[in-house]
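Materials and Methods. Structural model of PP4R1 phosphatase. The 277-residue sequence of PP4R1 phosphatase from Spizaetus tyrannus was retrieved and submitted for structure prediction as follows.
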Amino acid sequence: NMDSTLHYIHNDSDLSTNSSFSPEEERKSKVQDVVPQALLDQYLSMTDPSRAQTVDTEIAKHCAYSLPGVALTLGRQNWHCLKDTYETLASDMQWKVRRTLAFSIHELAVILGDQLTAGDLVPVFNGFLKDLDEVRIGVLKHLHDFLKLLHLDKRREYLYQLQEFLVTDNSRNWRFRAELAEQLILLLDLYSARDIYDYLRPIAFSLCADKVSSVRWISYKLVSEMVKKLYMASTSTFVVDLMNELVEKFCRCRKWSGRQTFVFICQVKCLFVQLFG
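The predicted structure was written out as tokens:
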């Protein structure tokens, strides 16, 4: 049965795709010697819209789910076989397909390495950042895992976009902001003291004043880790400025909730005891 199926796949005229290359050039661009070529052709054909109508309406989602495993099997030297399929899936009209790719883009980056990631995955990653919340949450949950694989200059470009994660399609989606706070804690290790103070500090203060207590509690930990990180940096002026801002914004706040926030931040890791004895 397998032999007959592969024979059918290999001779299926639906496998041809529209491109600027001739059919022969298109076929050669997807040739490899790791797995049977007919098997790879069958996998690549899963993005064909006619397959969704005749085989399975969610076949593109299955294709997206399996793509990191296929990429790992073929190796980065054969990424050219999957690149077009990946880009097709990344622009699929179904958000579930794009969401699946968003949740696994960091795994694919590890497989491909920094050069292929910068050239082929970063543009897709940037598109996911502007997508629906259902897709954005995929890149947000693994934001640190992806950014740590980029070179420092490219990584710093995303500092300007972190603020956009505070805005969601549904303001009641507090788990989105909670995940942002969790990721910012991890991102502290990837950026300099100045970057933390200039870009991450405003976001952290905004999250500390969130309406949902679960978000605030994670944000208290974020601020405490931020103070610790700045204190250990060679430039001590940032931590002094941050502590002064904490006192002015929360400790001397007219509202009891603000003063309570200051106490909670100090309580998380006993900052004042650690830093000032």
